[in-house]
Structures are given as C-alpha cells and as structure tokens.
Amino acid sequence: MSDDKEMVIEEQLLVPMEQYLSSGVYIGTKIRTKQMMPFVYKINPQGLSTLNLSEIDRRLRMVAKILSKYNPEDILVVCRRENGWKAVKAFGKYTGAKVFAGRYPAGIITNPALATFFEPKIILIADPYPDKNAVRDSQISGIPLIALCDTNNTLETVDYLVPCNNKGTKSLGLIFWILATQYLKEKNLLQKELSQDEFMGE
What we know:
Layout: H1 3-11, H2 17-23, E1 40-43, E2 49-51, H3 53-67, E3 75-79, H4 85-95, E4 98-101, E5 122-125, H5 132-141, E6 145-149, E7 160-163, H6 169-186
Parallel strand pairs: 3-4, 3-5, 5-6, 6-7
Antiparallel strand pairs: 1-2
C-alpha cells in the first residue's frame, strides 16, 4: 500500500491510528466465540486475537449516531468493571446520560414501585457478562442494547455492538471519549475538545 493510500485511510479514522494502537483497543483475548470471529483480523503466535481496527472505528461512528438520536436523559450507561468507571463517569458528565459505574441496581428500569425507577430508551454497556443484570433488564423492557464486545463475548442479547478490548483501562477510556465527543458533535453541542485525561483511569 502506498503512503498516500495509508494517509487517506488514516484521515478517515475518528482518531489517529497511533492513538488506537497505544490504547490497545484492538487487542482481543485467546477465547473467540463464533459470533465474534468475523471481527477478528488475525491471531498471533501466542493465540491472542487482534480485532479489525477499521471495523472498530466504523462501529464507534455508527453507535455515536444511534445514541445522538436520543436525549441524554433517555440514555443509560452501565459498567460493572472497575477499569471503566472513570470513563463512564466522564461520559455521563459531558453528555448528561445516566450512568451506573459499579453495581447496577436490580429492577431500577423494570420495577415502577421503586422510588429510583426510570425509563431509559437505550442502554449502553461495557461488557455483556459483568453487566448481565442490565442486559436482562433491557430484554424484559424491550429497550435496545448497545454493547462493547471482546472476542470472548456472545451476541444473542445485543442489538448493536462495538468490537473492542472492553477490559483495558486505556481502551475503555478512549472508547468512551470518542463516543462522548461524537455524540456531542452529532448534537452540535461540542464547544471544545474534551479532556482525555478525565476518561483515563491512571
């Protein structure tokens, strides 16, 4: 591939290629489900999966557009894994979305008798496995589910996915920074570049 073609491809990405690579967003696991195999670019000699970076970028763009169709108060973001807490909290801060970083309260969107009950119109989760309670509630309520999915995830309950490393702090930080930035751009609400440091867990 010529340098010119590489430059054109990189210009089409949401962030520079180096930024994607340094975050490890493309690094999968040694476990690969059948449903996630189409997103695997290659497998290294140690058996570790590499996800397709162009597909990650394309899906992030798609998911941001989907989210932008909703008002912030209609969006619920859930992340049980501690590596993503800072990232999802920053996403909530900048977008106004409702965020649960840590334990997700059972029944909060399915039990109207609860004082904390509310009705989101779309849910974004960091990982279908640790966030399984939110997945179940989305199914009960018939609410569309967006999930960040690594190579070990299954997709039966997922409506929209972003194939990515959904375990690493830097990866989750970059993903939620991109989604927050693109959401605000789509809403014409981005006044200045968001601080990436607020999304990173270091």
